[in-house]
Amino acid sequence: MQQRQFGPFQVSAIGLGCMNLSHAYGTPPPAQQGERVLLAALDAGVTLFDTAALYGFGANETLVGRVLKPHRNRFKLASKGGMAAVTGEDGVPRRVIDGRPEAIRRNCEDSLRRLQTDVIDLYYLHRWDKKVPIEDSVGAMSDLVRAGKVRALGLSEVSAATLRKAHRVHPIAAVQTEYSLWTRNPEIAVLDACAELGATFVAFSPVARGFLCDALPDVSTLQPKDIRQGMPRFEPANYAANLQLLPPYKALAQEAGCTPAQLALAWLLHKAPHIIPIPGTTSVEHLKEDLAAADVKLSPDMMDRLEALINQQTVHGNRYSAQSRSEVDTEEF
């Protein structure tokens, strides 16, 4: 596996996003299946595993910790705080964005326990809590570095301006945001800001939440708890329009000699050397397919044709609902 810089570390050019082993796309797979995916990734040379306190309300960190603890010296571990489950008086856990220093410290301690590790290699602020100055949240995270509980810091779904404010408090080693052919917002400012500051850009949902795959989701069969149910791009009218992009896209994949998912990942790897995609999957077969994208070569002409086909003008619908868009700090087209 090719290597790329991830903050102060060298890791595989493609990491593993662990979220959908426990969260987000309907009923998660059995724990044994998640275990097989994690161990197969490790055996295939993946050395960056990405999780968060939010995923499965702690279940994903628990799974990652249990399965990968015996191999802790073979990979770099990233997790996130500042957005986690809080149980109300009714006993029901709910997602809460809380960037106060005391919440970040509590989230980190909980994550360390679930992950069964003494230190998290890179700790992200999962969302900037706009009620709390970013300097205060990052200041609390820098205390975790000084305490030896975290090695490096990152931010998720932030603008270039917020990144620069945070970086003045403590070096930001990585920024994680959705980025794929059909979500191009990072190209407005954050990609360049990361390059300027020496931060790695980590691209989540790099195959467009399954849209740029052979196994195209049928939106009429999405489970009630599948987060795509609330995403405008997957609403029936927008989705029908977006489907028109797929035949010419698949033709380009065939021309490039790879699968559609591999083409999406190879595009990201060719965009800039400081980008690391972290596709997620519940299938060992799809995992191997994704990792083979590191060997796909794309010409400048192919890059241009891909970007002309799928971009912010040709994709129908926003990536998030109005509520979700209000919770992120990214620049939007």
Automatic annotation (TrEMBL):
Q: Name one Pfam family in it.
A: Aldo_ket_red
Question: InterPro entries given for it?
Answer: Aldo-Keto_reductase (IPR050791), NAD(P)_OxRdtase_dom_sf (IPR036812), NADP_OxRdtase_dom (IPR023210)
Q: Which UniProt keywords apply?
A: Oxidoreductase
User: Where would I find the NADP-dependent oxidoreductase domain in this sequence?
Assistant: 13-310
Q: Which PANTHER family match?
A: AFLATOXIN B1 ALDEHYDE REDUCTASE, ALDO-KETO REDUCTASE YAKC [NADP(+)]
Look up the EC number in the record and give it. Answer: 1.1.1.-
Enzyme type, top EC level = oxidoreductase
Which Gene Ontology molecular-function terms are recorded?
Answer: oxidoreductase activity
Q: Which domain of life is it from?
A: Bacteria
Q: What is this protein called?
A: Aldo/keto reductase
Q: Does the keyword Oxidoreductase apply?
A: yes
